[in-house]
Write a structure and sequence with these properties.
- With about 400 residues, the chain is mainly beta.
- It has one domain: Tachylectin-2, Chain A, CATH 2.115.10.
- The protein has 3 helices and 24 strands.
- Strands 16, 17, 18, 19, 20, 21 and 22 form a 7-stranded mixed β-sheet that branches. The chain has a 6-stranded mixed β-sheet with strand order 6-7-8-9-10-11, with no helix packed on it.
- Strand 6 and strand 7 form a beta hairpin.
Length: about 400
């Protein structure tokens, strides 16, 4: 018994030491405007969100919130991490929760898909054991879809993972499911978005090759992190393009966020505009942006994205920025006179638990009146429940009625 306790204390001590060292490495990670915003935000604290009835293992992450038009019911989709693989996982699937009180409380409803063991036949004829995963879900209500069974739409990144190769995004795609009500039956997966020669067999029959829509995306090997918004009969979808590039450290991956639109409720898609490039990121003080979502607040439209810096091999998300669209239809973000993008708001990570992958990938619905913006954060101190979600209780746009936010009186 004493030996077990000593081992436990040793593990906890190593975790604490890792968090301390991570903090020291991350102190000067951001630069420029983003560093100033994080410093001015100070020591923030948010309320942890755990839906009642949810069986927590490795934790929950990647939230997306969407309310019914009258605001009476809020639906929350997120990634649930399960299994006894070390350090966590390996299974990731999409779960659904519901709120009937504006986000004051949430209850688990059901799993919308399931992560499964499988094997993959590689081009060289060898078989590779692994797991099919669902991650980064995004949910939208599309009220003008003529088919009532298609008015709720779910987009997720479906891909193969193996212990030997980790995420194999060239075997995967963005899939879409539809339903009349999120709590009822959903359609089968529709393999929607691919990238040129990816995905490879057996998930190669996607409906849209995004690489063919825009020359700037021709070199992309995969797409991930979808964010969706319905507006005046049109669907808008933001995505991250993963593009290999050669740098001083060898072959790396660049991240570019862009906007698509559909005028027929998801059957056909067209390219609208590049939203955030690596050059934009560097001008604001980070390496790149990821984890995008789309939101509306008081008739204004916003892109939410997480600034990312690299700490060794680790990619660290440093909270969430809100960038306002000057024109959503044209995908044009507001810029200052010096042509730099304006940052409408910034949501800092909680410094007390800042570790690992950081925090970001936020979601917002103005009808989530008690929870405000929802943001996940990695928490190494809570191992094995390292993936966590928090309600910030902050509106997207600060005003004089909310003195707790920057700009409030």
């Amino acid at each position: 018994m004493k030996m077990t306790r000593l081992r436990y204390l040793l593990v906890v001590s190593l975790i604490v030491l890792g968090v301390v060292l991570f903090h020291k490495r991350a102190e000067s990670a951001l630069a420029g405007r983003l560093a100033e915003l994080k410093k001015s935000a100070g020591d923030v604290h948010y309320a942890k969100l755990v839906p009642a009835g949810e069986a927590i293992e490795g934790g929950i992450y990647d939230p997306c919130v969407a309310y019914t038009p009258d605001g009476s019911v809020g639906w929350l989709v997120y990634t649930s991490v399960k299994g006894d693989y070390k350090p966590v996982g390996p299974y990731t699937e999409t779960h659904l929760a519901r709120s009937t009180n504006g986000g004051a409380s949430w209850e688990f409803v059901k799993a919308l898909n399931h992560s499964t063991n499988s094997s993959l036949m590689l081009p060289d004829g060898n078989s590779l054991a692994g797991v099919w995963r669902y991650e980064v879900p995004t949910l939208v209500h599309d009220p003008t879809d003529p088919d009532p069974d298609n008015r709720w739409k779910l987009f997720t990144h479906y891909y193969f993972w193996s212990p030997q190769r980790d995420r194999m995004v060239n075997y995967g795609c963005i899939v879409m499911n539809t339903a009349a009500n999120p709590a009822r039956e959903w359609s089968a997966d529709v393999p929607l978005f691919g990238a040129g020669k990816s995905p490879q067999v057996p998930c190669h029959k996607t409906l849209v090759d995004i690489n063919a829509l825009e020359p700037a995306l021709h070199g992309s090997v995969a797409y991930s992190e979808p964010g969706v918004l319905a507006r005046e009969g049109r669907l808008y979808l933001s995505l991250t393009a993963l593009q290999p590039h050669l740098g001083l450290g060898g072959v790396g991956v660049s991240h570019t966020i862009f906007l698509l639109a559909s005028d027929d409720h998801g059957k056909r898609w067209r390219f609208v505009r590049l939203l955030l490039t690596p050059e934009d990121a560097k001008s604001m003080g980070c390496e790149f942006f990821d984890g995008s979502s789309l939101a509306e607040d008081a008739g204004r439209f916003f892109l939410l994205a997480s600034p990312v810096v690299r700490q060794g091999r680790e990619e660290v998300h440093e909270g969430t920025v809100a960038l306002e669209f000057e024109s959503l239809a044209n995908g044009r973000l507001r810029s200052a006179r010096n042509h730099q993008l304006e940052i409408a708001n910034y949501f800092a990570p909680q410094s007390a638990i800042f570790s690992g992958g950081g925090a970001g990938q936020a979601t917002y619905d103005s009808r989530n009146i008690h929870g405000g913006l929802i943001m996940p954060q990695f928490n190494l101190l809570a191992y094995p429940e390292v993936f966590q979600i928090f309600q910030t209780s902050r509106r997207l746009m600060p005003d004089s009625r909310d003195p707790a936010q920057p700009g409030g009186q």
